[in-house]
Request: fold
Amino acid sequence: MSTSFRRKAAAIGFAVAALTLAGGGIAVAQPSAKAPQAVVQPASRATNTQPPVTAESARKAKAALKAGDASTLATATYYTVVNANGTKVRGTGTVIKYGAGQYEVQFGVNVSTGAYLATISSANACCIPPAGEATVAPRLGTPNAVFVQTYNSSGVPADLGFTLLTHTF
Reply:
């Protein structure tokens, strides 16, 4: 009985060693030809950079901070509902539209260390919004703003309405 147990243990040990070596070889293997860029990252998703901050945007951001709440110790949650054309429907903040699917929402407080959540939405109570995606990030160079990009369901930048929730700490 002990002989069969030793044989099974040796076989299992050998199998584990073989799988470990094979797995390591697969992880280290590299393709000989570089994959085309279009396969790695679709061209429609290549707009992952924010447009530069304009002088008008910087002026509005400074004015919003000056007029806003100076307290940074309390937490707060803000919401903004935005139409596809960049007009604010309700909520707080000032909306600036840059290009197809590119929006900046400015607040009266520093939100750079906050948490952001955006979803495609419709301001009309009657309608379900079109399929799509929304991405959010702190606005580069503007501590009181959030940058939002919207895409259609194919991943192409598109003007879509959205709701943004911003929680500051």
Q: What stands out?
A: The two ends are 65 Å apart (CA to CA).
